[in-house]
């Protein structure tokens, strides 16, 4: 391959990815607005017209901001690659009298900081304008800044050692460096899964065992039926930052936890909480976390093998705006991560479909081990409380939604509970 051909392929992939995402966003806006005036018949007795209007307006506002972010990201990407921005940054760092490994680490850290800084204005706008406008935000500016600082420090503490190790392997481990780097990456993912529930998440929120006696007995019976240790059930002070309600499963082994937002606890009836918990337990019992981790690891191995080939090819650097001949490991990592989304976006529906499949499976598990009607009423309340649109554009949903659309999900549950 030549540098010119790679440049052409990159521009084509970026144009297709950007154009498709803008087209999907336009479809989403038109579809949601076209169905704004009437609550879908299946939900007419459960969702008020005012709540339906709010969900539509919230979806439209978020989609419009996503379009702005998409365009800004494309501009930054082109500026860093073909615009020569990364070449300029790498050249400046190369002049610092430190070993090459330190230069490579500094380059990656600088690009990460730059990307984070450029994302801050829209992150602020989402929190303090959109979330505030629709009554969801409970963050103060001080807490928002504190979260950013904590996240950056945790990212540095975990990420810099990993990046340093990978760069060292690239320079010292020979042609199979990518295999050793993959092993390090998998070990890192396992470490984060182990640390997140007990060490990382508590830095941002408080987690307390479920103590509501009206709920506890029902939940304990559910946990016993499903073979899950009761110590793994926690309530999180999600209301500290947002009025959104949610629940999720995290960790593995002794560190596994099911987490319920306190906003969810305050909104749902005991049988509805049991049904939501049964859904989350379904993810554990059906090994969804393990399956997703396995697929992610396999994909990472393939991508690192590809990078192992590209890192020694001069056309890879020149074709993405950084001319030169000798392998430059830090530059190679940055270029690869910058260009990759443009080439992989078309695979998004596959990942989303796989995730939605798991959600349907967890719903079936909940229907067998708790109550399908209770899960339906719980989901309807959560759709309303979170202002989740009941009428997403089908194609947009196929690309971006990790959960099934509300009508399809509710219909399957009602058939299961019939």
Search tags:
4% strand; mainly alpha; 418 residues; four-stranded mixed beta sheet
User: What structural class should be given to the helix and strand makeup?
Assistant: mainly alpha
Biggest sheet architecture? 4 strands, mixed
Which residues form runs of ≥5 with pLDDT under 50? Answer: none
Instruction: Please tell me what the overall shape is.
Output: globular
Helix content: over 70%
Estimated share of beta-strand residues: under 5%
Spatial strand order of the main sheet = 1-2-4-3
The overall pLDDT, averaged over residues, is 91
CA radius of gyration is 23 Å
Outline the structure in words.
By secondary structure, the protein is mostly helical. 72% of the residues lie in helices and 4% in strands. The protein has helices at residues 3-34, 49-80, 85-94, 100-133, 141-172, 177-200, 213-226, 262-267, 270-285, 288-310, 314-319, 329-344, 348-369, 372-385, 394-400, 406-417, and strands at 207-209, 233-236, 247-250, 257-261. It has a 4-stranded mixed β-sheet with strand order 1-2-4-3. Strand 3 and strand 4 form a beta hairpin. Helix 1 (3-34) packs across helix 12 (329-344) and helix 7 (213-226) runs parallel beside helix 9. The protein is globular, with a radius of gyration of 23 Å. The protein starts with a helix and ends with a helix. The mean pLDDT is 91.
């Amino acid at each position: 391959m030549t540098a010119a051909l790679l440049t052409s392929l990159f521009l084509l992939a970026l144009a297709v990815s950007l154009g498709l995402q803008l087209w999907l966003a336009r479809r989403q806006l038109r579809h949601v607005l076209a169905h704004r005036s009437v609550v879908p018949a299946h939900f007419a007795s459960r969702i008020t017209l005012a709540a339906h209007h709010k969900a539509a307006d919230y979806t439209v506002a978020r989609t419009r901001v996503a379009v702005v972010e998409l365009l800004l990201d494309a501009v930054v990407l082109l500026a860093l690659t073909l615009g020569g921005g990364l070449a300029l940054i790498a050249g400046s760092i190369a002049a610092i009298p430190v070993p090459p490994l330190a230069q490579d680490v500094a380059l990656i850290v600088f690009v990460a900081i730059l990307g984070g800084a450029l994302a801050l204005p829209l992150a602020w706008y989402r929190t303090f304008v959109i979330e505030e406008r629709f009554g969801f935000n409970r963050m103060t500016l001080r807490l928002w800044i504190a979260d950013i600082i904590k996240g950056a420090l945790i990212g540095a503490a975990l990420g810099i050692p990993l990046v340093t190790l990978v760069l060292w392997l690239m320079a010292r481990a020979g042609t199979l460096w990518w295999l050793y780097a993959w092993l390090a990456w998998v070990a890192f993912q396992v470490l984060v899964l182990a640390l997140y529930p007990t060490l990382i998440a508590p830095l941002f929120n408080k987690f307390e065992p479920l103590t509501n006696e009206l709920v506890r007995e029902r939940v304990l019976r559910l946990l016993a039926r499903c073979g899950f240790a009761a110590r793994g059930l926690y309530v999180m002070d999600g209301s500290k930052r947002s009025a959104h309600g949610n629940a999720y499963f995290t960790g593995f082994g002794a560190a596994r936890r099911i987490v319920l937002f306190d906003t969810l606890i305050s909104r749902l009836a005991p049988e509805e909480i049991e049904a939501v918990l049964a859904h989350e337990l379904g993810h554990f019992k059906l090994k969804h976390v393990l399956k997703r981790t396995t697929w992610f690891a396999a994909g990472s191995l393939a991508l690192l093998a590809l990078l192992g080939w590209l890192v020694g090819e001069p056309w890879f650097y020149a074709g993405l705006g950084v001319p030169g001949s000798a392998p430059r490991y830090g530059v190679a990592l940055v270029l690869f991560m910058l260009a990759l989304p443009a080439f992989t976006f078309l695979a998004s529906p596959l990942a989303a479909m796989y995730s939605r499949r798991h959600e349907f499976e967890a719903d079936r598990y909940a229907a067998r081990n708790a109550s399908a009607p209770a899960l339906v009423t719980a989901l309807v309340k959560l759709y309303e409380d979170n202002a989740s649109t009941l009428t997403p554009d089908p194609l947009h949903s196929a690309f971006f939604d990790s959960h099934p659309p509300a009508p399809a999900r509710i219909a399957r549950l009602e058939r299961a509970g019939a």
